[in-house]
Structure formats: structure tokens, C-alpha cells
TrEMBL record:
Name used for this protein in its record: Cysteine--tRNA ligase
Amino acids binding ATP: 268
SUPFAM superfamilies referenced in this protein's UniProt entry, alphabetically: Anticodon-binding domain of a subclass of class I aminoacyl-tRNA synthetases (SSF47323), Nucleotidylyl transferase (SSF52374)
Localization of this protein: Cytoplasm
Coiled coil location: 409-440
Motif ('HIGH' region): 30-40
Record carries keyword Protein biosynthesis: yes
Residue ranges of every copy of the Cysteinyl-tRNA synthetase class Ia DALR domain listed in the record: 351-416
Gene: cysS
Length: 465
């Protein structure tokens, strides 16, 4: 079976073709001036599954996800708080990893920071100026968008349509309103670097082009992000990268849909932005991950308390089935694998692959997972079942439910209980030492695992959420 994915560039589903079974994938990471919100998380959770699934199929994936650690938002945050830009970015990069660890997102192979690649950016901009694609004006450097004859090909709009629909700030230094900044001259007190054009800092778009090329080469297989990045960010990346290298920048462009808050689009102007760090205190992290994967990635998805409660119920149903298998394993007898169970699991494997190969349809992949939940529950209810049959079911969940989708944990319950008891003991020691910050952190860690603590006169009791 082959993977077919929807390419934003061609607006069609295409068969994925890569060289030497290797996939070079770049996903735009966060601008680290604040905690990430649920819309950001949808990008990172979904493409975490894409990376996992490609590995499951045997592809060698090199996955790069950047951090934008210098831009207007960070500079404004620095002015507002009085803290240096690097201190702010360090704080929120750490917070990002805490959120992603909780949601089961594996770290990329490379997490480059924009500020670590300034010399390469200066080199790229210099090359674009030399080729006539860029020009300097009073310390700023702009890209000549109309010099690139196919500018607008990702957005599928002409320059006139882009100009009419875009929010373009008036700038008398530009030769054309659609020209965009490759480098920005520094204002007094701003973070800056020395260049041939004076002190300044990079524009947003050039950062990704430079980091993508450094770690993945001239041509990427997959470049991805939220639909909001299609224009101008990804459009501008294509223009500057192809002008710079003379090669096709990306073979397949993937963009995921928006998250709505009920009937409204999530936006800062409406004040309805949900931060992941806050949601983790309200809901099981596995349920947040489930919610983000429960609709096809290109479709919009609506967040609500009711939907999240349903997600928690769904995750608990899956995990309970796995826990029951582990429990029944202890009482099961040696014997051959049940042929009927083995045949059904083989069919479910084929069905899972078929759904995921069709533009990474995680929603339908989850539906297959629930079919196996049903099969597992029927199996453990039988009077007699062999250990090998239970192990085969557990292995199926481990591969598809844990390693690909990241929605269940297949380790035995008694191992989890030992871990919980150890954390509770560590919390008790922290409380006796009056290290309440550590004690609260451990309580939060347990809550993230779905464990609620109750301090009683008889000691600490715990229960599952």
C-alpha cells in the first residue's frame, strides 16, 4: 500500500514518493514569547503521529522543528517585562517541552533556534542581493516578490489578489507592497547583530529557509504547519528558497485546519485562546491528544467542555481494555494463539494502514483502534483464553495505539502503581522538608497521569480521575 497525501501546492492527493526510503520533514515550530495554545498543539501532535507512522512503515525520517526565538513579539515582550529576549525565549522553550512531554509528543531530531543561525542567514541574504532578488534600503533588506514569476503558487492567487486580500503595512521603502523583509534594521535598544547593512535582526521567513536547508538540503520532502502559515510565511519561504538555490524547495506541503471555540474561531482578539499549560490542569493529557487527533487534520475542529469530557471517556475506555488484558494475562493459561483473534487482528492492521495511508486519517485510525478494544473486551470475557492470545492483543495495542497514535500505555498496571507510590513517597518527603513547590509539582505530575491525591488523617490515598 502506498501513502497518498493532500499537497497544498497542487490541491490534489498525490502518491508520496521519496528517495532511498528517507523522508526529510520540516514543521514550523512556535514563536517562543508565551505558552503555546491548543491550536499550536494540534500541529505538533498531528505531525508527531505522521513522523511515528512513517517510522512504523519503515521510512527513515529526519524531523526538524525550529524555534523562532527573535521577532517583534519577543522584542515587545522584552520591552514590557524588562527581561532580555534570550531569557524570555529560554523560559518558553522549556515550557514548550513540558507541554509536549505531557501530550506525548516526541522531540524532533533537531530543534534549531533562529538566533543560532545568524551567519547562515546573512550569507543567504547576501546571495539573494547578488542575484537581484533582494535590495537594501536604510539597513532593511527586502525580497522582490514579483521577480519570482510564480509568486503566489502555494496560495493559488495572483499577486494582485494577494495584494488585495493581505494586510500589508505601508512602507515607503519597499519597491512593491508585496515585497517582504529579509532583514530588519535595529531600533535603539533592540537585540541585534552586525551585518554588511548595519546592525539588525532577521525577518521571520528567512529563518526557516536557512534552517531547513542547513539540516535537510535544498529540497525537502514534507514541509508543514497550520493553515494560517500558508500565506505569507510559506509562500515567502518558497520564493526566497527557490530564488536562492534554483531548486524545488518542497515536494509536499501539508497544512492542518483551525480550532474553533464552540461556534467561534479561536483568536486573541476574541479572548478565547486556550493555553495547553492550563488545559493540562483540567483534562487528562491523553484526552487532549485524543481530541486533537479525533478529526481529519485538514478539517476544522471545535473545542468545548462537552467534547473534552467525551475525549476523556474515550481514552479511559481504551486504557481500561488494555489494563484488563494485562490483568487477565496473569490468570491466562499457556496455549496457542486463538486463530480467530489472530485473523481479525490481521484484518484490523490492514484496515489501520489503509486509513492512515489515505492522507494520514487519524480519525478513522482511531475508529479501528476501538474495533480492537471491542475484540479485546470480548476476548477477556471468555472463560478460557491463552496467554499468547492476550500477548498478541497487547502487542497490537502497543504498536498501533501506543507507538503510532500515542493514546494508550501498555505497560502492566502493577508497574504503574509502583511508580505512583514512589512519587507519593517523594511528595511526602518534600512536604516534611517544607518544599511545597516540589510537592505541588509532584501532585501536578500525578494529575497529568490521571491520578488524584486525597490527603486524609490516615495518610495519602489516590484514585484515578
Amino acid at each position: 500500500m502506498t501513502i497518498r497525501l493532500y499537497n497544498t501546492l497542487t490541491r490534489t492527493k498525490e502518491e508520496m514518493r521519496v528517495r532511498n526510503n528517507e523522508v526529510r520533514m520540516y514543521v514550523c515550530g512556535p514563536t517562543v514569547y508565551n505558552y503555546i495554545h491548543i491550536g499550536n498543539a494540534r500541529v505538533f501532535v498531528f505531525f508527531d503521529v505522521v513522523r511515528r507512522y512513517l517510522g512504523y512503515l519503515g521510512y527513515k525520517v529526519t524531523y526538524v522543528q525550529n524555534f523562532t526565538d527573535v521577532d517583534d513579539k519577543l522584542i515587545n515582550a522584552s520591552k514590557k517585562t524588562g527581561k532580555p529576549v534570550p531569557e524570555i525565549s529560554d523560559r518558553y522553550i522549556k515550557a514548550y517541552f513540558e507541554d509536549m512531554d505531557a501530550l506525548g509528543v516526541k522531540q524532533a531530531d533537531i530543534h534549531p533556534r533562529a538566533t543560532e543561525h545568524i551567519p547562515e542567514m546573512i550569507e543567504a541574504i547576501s546571495a539573494l542581493i547578488e542575484k537581484g532578488y533582494a535590495y537594501e534600503k536604510n539597513g532593511d533588506v527586502y525580497f522582490r516578490s514579483l521577480r519570482k514569476k510564480d509568486y503566489g503558487k502555494l496560495s493559488h492567487q495572483s499577486p494582485e489578489e494577494l495584494k488585495a486580500g493581505a494586510r500589508i503595512e505601508l512602507n515607503e521603502q519597499k519597491e512593491h507592497p508585496l515585497d517582504f523583509a529579509l532583514w530588519k534594521a535595529a531600533k535603539p535598544g533592540e537585540i541585534s547583530w552586525k551585518t554588511p547593512w548595519g546592525r539588525g535582526r532577521p525577518g521571520w521567513h528567512i529563518e526557516c529557509s536557512v534552517m531547513a536547508r542547513k539540516y535537510l538540503g535544498d529540497t525537502l520532502d514534507i514541509h508543514a504547519g497550520g493553515a494560517d502559515l500558508c500565506f505569507p510565511h510559506h509562500e515567502n519561504e518558497i520564493a526566497q528558497s527557490e530564488a536562492w538555490t534554483g531548486e524545488t524547495f518542497v515536494r509536499y506541503w501539508l497544512h492542518n485546519g483551525y480550532i474553533n471555540m464552540g461556534d467561534e474561531k479561536m483568536s486573541k482578539s476574541l479572548g478565547n485562546v486556550k493555553r495547553v499549560v492550563e488545559l493540562r490542569q483540567e483534562y487528562l493529557p491523553e484526552a487532549i491528544r485524543y481530541f486533537l487527533l479525533s478529526a481529519h487534520y485538514r478539517h476544522p475542529i471545535s473545542f468545548s467542555e462537552e467534547v473534552m469530557k467525551q475525549a476523556e471517556g474515550s481514552v479511559e475506555r481504551m486504557q481500561t481494555a488494555v489494563n484488563n488484558l494485562n490483568h487477565r494475562l496473569n490468570a491466562a493459561l499457556p496455549g496457542d494463539v486463538d486463530a480467530d483473534v489472530a485473523q481479525k487482528l490481521s484484518q484490523f492492521t490492514d484496515q489501520f494502514k489503509a486509513e492512515m495511508n489515505d492522507d494520514f486519517n487519524t480519525a478513522n485510525g482511531i475508529s479501528v483502534l476501538f474495533e480492537v478494544v471491542k475484540l479485546a473486551n470480548e476476548t477477556v470475557a471468555k472463560p478460557v483464553v491463552s496467554k499468547e492470545t492476550i500477548r498478541l492483543l497487547l502487542y497490537w495495542f502497543k504498536v498501533h495505539g501506543e507507538e503510532v497514535l500515542g493514546l494508550v500505555k501498555t505497560e502492566a498496571e502493577n508497574t504503574l502503581e509502583q511508580e505512583i507510590e514512589a512519587l507519593i513517597e517523594e511528595r511526602q518527603k518534600a512536604r516534611k522538608a517544607r518544599d511545597f513547590a516540589k510537592a505541588d509539582a509532584i501532585r501536578g505530575q500525578l494529575l497529568a497521569k490521571g491520578i488524584i491525591l486525597e490527603d486524609t488523617p490516615q495518610g495519602v490515598r489516590w484514585r484515578r480521575k
